[in-house]
């Protein structure tokens, strides 16, 4: 036996062409098995997550504007797939080939198929399975794989319907970042202003650090205006929120001097403002105390994101500081291990894990974050929780892919999504890349600017992420970027 084996090895060594052909065939066969083992399908269904809110926006022009603004972020969430070598991306809007190639170059992605349904109802999962040609094409591709991982920005009723249709067509579908159907209620409940507030009230004795601004939940604009006016007169400030909102819409913040001091006049004015948008009639309204915050202080709005795996494992992904306008609109983040002092970080992480444990016990699965407010009196308030992919999920996944598991200490991240170009005429994506070439991300130096999307360029708005080895370096790169952008005619 030993001799025959020796002769066989000798024969292979003396026939390099045969050996190479066998090795190549074996390698290709192995690669084929890997490629055909699992298909990842990612769906950017941001509007489905907020459909109950956006569908109530009036007038229709304003609603369509809000939907388009949400969908324009589709390119950003290609980066939520930064670690996937191959995947299918379901987008509600067309993504340019230029940006697709740019994304692939940044993430070394071999292949990404972008499918865009013809219908544009805002419900992209529904638009997909009612688009016969596109859906059939997807089924043909899916049947080549042993299993399909269906992942989405948010877990919506339409998402579950899509999963069911795939199962009926004998596709082995897994949803690793979504609750089981019997626990789907956790998405809307914990993702609502009233749901997280109820959890805080129930947890007061067990977790004293889990506190929210003092407030009440009511139904109806008239009662809300009465309660809010009373609070404003007594406390010189008040905040009103819809149970579900979108990007700062559905929030009214009134500070001292912004409303009449006379109770009746104040009530009337609040009621008038609530009557301007239909969504105040659709949801419960939360009336909260106004927390005094220094909006010029970068540390005022901490945020932490978790992922609950299908197994129930809780994973803290990162914490960051959110950039928020005086009107309560989010426009970016800074991310780094040292961005929050150790004492504050420990408190945020501890509270975050406690909330994650409650979500896990209720059956929630997938990503979620917790928005917090740091007040001038050294208190840390939980503001809300988003049970979906978040404004930082794509940034986190891209950063993790570029810098590895030590990303949190190895780089300082700046992400912004509201820079308005001063030029009066829209600039093409490729032209912009050439213009800012000196500050673009350099893979060898591991620093520079990555553009998060091209869709907003049509309205002269820019989304970007910046990496530097420390805060000072990252902000210097941002300064250099803005200096270049200011030269664009």
TrEMBL record:
SUPFAM superfamilies: Glutathione synthetase ATP-binding domain-like. Residues 202-416 form the ATP-grasp domain. InterPro entries: ATP-grasp. Transmembrane segments: none annotated. The keyword Hydrolase does not apply. Keywords: ATP-binding, Nucleotide-binding. GO terms for molecular function: ATP binding; metal ion binding. This is ATP-grasp domain-containing protein. It comes from Candidatus Roizmanbacteria bacterium RIFCSPLOWO2_01_FULL_37_12.
């Amino acid at each position: 036996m030993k001799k025959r084996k020796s002769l066989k090895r000798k024969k292979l060594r003396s026939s390099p062409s045969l050996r190479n052909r066998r090795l190549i065939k074996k390698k290709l066969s192995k690669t084929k098995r890997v490629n055909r083992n699992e298909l990842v399908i990612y769906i950017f269904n941001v509007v489905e997550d907020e459909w109950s809110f956006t569908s109530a926006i009036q007038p229709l022009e304003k609603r369509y504007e809000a939907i388009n603004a949400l969908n324009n972020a589709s390119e950003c969430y290609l980066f939520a797939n930064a670690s996937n070598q191959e995947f299918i991306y379901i987008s509600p809007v067309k993504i340019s080939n230029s940006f697709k190639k740019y994304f692939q170059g940044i993430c070394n992605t071999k292949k990404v198929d972008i499918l865009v349904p013809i219908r544009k109802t805002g419900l992209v999962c529904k638009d997909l399975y009612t688009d016969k040609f596109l859906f059939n094409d997807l089924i043909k591709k899916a049947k080549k794989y042993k299993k399909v991982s269906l992942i989405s920005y948010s877990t919506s009723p339409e998402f579950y319907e899509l999963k069911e249709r795939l199962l009926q067509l004998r596709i082995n579908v897994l949803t690793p970042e979504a609750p089981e159907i019997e626990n789907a209620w956790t998405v809307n409940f914990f993702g609502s202003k009233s749901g997280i507030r109820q959890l805080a009230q129930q947890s007061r004795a067990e977790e004293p650090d889990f506190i929210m601004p003092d407030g009440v939940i009511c139904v109806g604009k008239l009662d809300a205006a009465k309660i809010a006016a009373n609070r404003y007169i007594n406390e010189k400030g008040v905040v009103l929120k819809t149970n579900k909102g979108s990007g700062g819409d559905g929030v009214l913040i009134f500070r001292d001097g912004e409303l009449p001091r006379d109770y009746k006049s104040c009530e009337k004015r609040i009621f008038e403002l609530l009557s301007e948008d239909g969504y105040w009639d659709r949801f419960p309204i939360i009336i909260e105390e106004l927390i005094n915050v220094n909006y010029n202080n970068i540390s005022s709005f901490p945020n932490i994101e978790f992922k609950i795996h299908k197994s129930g494992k809780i994973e803290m992904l990162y914490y960051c500081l959110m950039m928020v306008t005086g009107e309560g609109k989010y426009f970016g983040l800074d991310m780094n291990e040292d961005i929050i002092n150790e004492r504050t970080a420990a408190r945020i992480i501890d509270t975050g894990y406690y909330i994650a444990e409650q979500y896990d016990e209720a059956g929630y699965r997938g990503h979620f974050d917790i928005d917090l407010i740091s007040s001038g009196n050294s208190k840390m308030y939980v503001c809300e929780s988003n049970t979906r992919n978040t404004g930082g999920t794509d940034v986190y996944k891209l950063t993790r892919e570029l810098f590895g598991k030590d990303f949190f200490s190895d780089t300082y991240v700046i992400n912004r999504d509201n820079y308005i170009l001063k030029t009066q005429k829209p600039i093409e994506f490729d032209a912009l890349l050439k213009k800012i070439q000196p500050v673009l991300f350099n893979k060898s130096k591991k620093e520079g600017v990555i553009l998060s999307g091209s869709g907003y360029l049509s309205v002269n708005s820019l989304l970007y992420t910046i990496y530097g080895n420390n805060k000072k370096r990252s902000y210097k790169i941002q300064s250099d970027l803005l200096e270049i952008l200011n030269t664009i005619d």
